[in-house]
Amino acid sequence: MATLPSLILDGSQWMLAGFPVLGMLDEERAVKYFSLNPFVPNSKNRCPLECAYCVCHQDSDWHQHPDKFSHVNPAPTLLAQLLDLILATPEGQAGFPISLCDYSDPFISVHRERVIEIINALIDRDASNMVYITTKMHPGIAFLDALKKVLSRPNRLKVTVFVSLPPLQSGYEAVSVSGRVQLLKDLVAKAIPCCWYLRPLVEEWFDEALMIELSRQLVPIVKDHIILSGIVMSAEVEDILLSRDLVVPRWSDSGVKQHLNPAFEQRLKAILSDAAFVADVSLGPVMGHRLCGTNGNHAYGCLICGKQERHCQLFQIHHYGKTIQSETNQRLKESLQDKNA
Fold first, then answer.
1. CA-to-CA distance for 341 and 338, rounded, in angstroms?
2. What whole-number distance in Å separates Cα of residue 226 and Cα of residue 290?
3. DSSP assignment letter at 304
4. Which member of 22, 120, 254, 265 has the greatest number of CB atoms within 10 A?
5. Does residue 203 belong to any structural domain of this protein?
């Protein structure tokens, strides 16, 4: 087991006092991004949202015990150490994604300065990575202005804010829907790259009326930046759902994201298409992965994304190490060539 001062490598996770401060790329779990969490989950840093489906529930050794970290003081050099580890790898140097504060919410008050610090540090190192900021919290206009200022520095990063806003029935999350709608509007107004991240989509939890209302409000704003994504289930998440008298969806393969039922996916896309028709806008490709969303925000010429075999070529390269010339992809290429002829 490898170690650095205060850090221990356990499998693909660099741990600080038992908390995964950095998740490295993991072939066994098919994880193709770095999960950067340069903090410990004490009462201040821990995510306060307590969504019923949060994958943190499966990490009960730390998620349910913020008191265990009340006296842990990370070294001031922690972020620099973690960035050293990322950028020492071929994938880090090649620009593979870095996801910020996955085990909390990067836009809660305590993490806002941290997010700015991370982005500044990456720019100072002339890094070229994609950066995922996935949130359910509106951090306030002042912070968005500060974020915009940092992103205005000359840099090679591809930063995208993914606003997690699924159309769920009551009980599964307690976060403000209107706050997240406003966040997307404010991000677009400030030209900060963003996506409407419909995750998790679970057919058994689906609120169709809410989906219709959200589509009417948001499709005109983010018509080219919409992602559909399923849920990651585990036995621990199932226990939380049961303890709250919520519906446990059908699931298999612990730790693997559940694919959307094709009929359910088409139902979602039809609602989005209807909203685009009413708003008289052209709906862009409805995507299936955050990497595709980053590509779209930063002008990487994606193919039309959707099902797993139809991800953009850059996602394929990151995920499989090569492009996958499936029959579906070939038909899409030919279709795009015909349109552009």
1. 5
2. 10
3. P
4. 22
5. no
Q: Residue 200: inside a domain, yes or no?
A: no
Residue 204 lies in a domain: no
Are 150 and 222 in the same domain?
no
DSSP letter, residue 256: S
What's the CA gap between 95 and 88, in Å, rounded? 12
114 and 250 in a single domain? The answer is no
Clarify whether residues 146 and 189 are in a common domain: no
For residues 131 and 187, state if they share a domain: no
For residue 287, the surrounding DSSP H or E stretch is strand 286-287
Tell whether 31 and 148 lie within a shared domain.
yes
User: What span, in angstroms and rounded, lies between the C-alpha atoms of 135 and 101?
Assistant: 9
- Whether 133 and 160 have beta carbons less than 8 Å apart is answered as yes
Q: Which is nearest to 16 in space by CA: 105, 82, 60, 88?
A: 82
Q: Please check whether residues 5 and 146 belong to one and the same domain.
A: yes
Residue-level pLDDT, tens digit, the chain, 341 residues: 566 778 999 999 999 999 999 999 886 665 678 999 999 999 999 999 989 999 887 787 888 889 999 999 999 999 999 999 999 998 899 888 999 999 999 999 999 999 999 999 999 999 999 999 999 999 999 999 999 999 999 999 999 999 999 999 999 999 999 999 999 999 999 999 999 999 999 999 999 999 999 999 999 999 999 999 999 888 889 999 999 999 999 988 766 778 899 999 999 999 999 999 999 999 988 888 888 888 778 865 444 444 334 445 555 555 555 655 544 445 544 554 554 55
**Domain count of the chain?**
2
DSSP letters, 9-68, are EETTEEEETTEEEEEPPBTTTTB-SEEE--S--STTTS-S---TT-GGGG-HHHHT-GGG
In the numeric block, the tokens 């009929």 are attached to 263
- For residue 327, the tally of other CB atoms under 10 A from its CB is 8
Residue 274 lies in a domain: yes
Parent domain of 150: 1-156
For residues 148 and 192, the answer to whether their CB atoms sit within 8 Å is yes
Distance of CA 238 to the CA centre of its chain: 21
Q: Are residues 143 and 217 in the same domain?
A: no
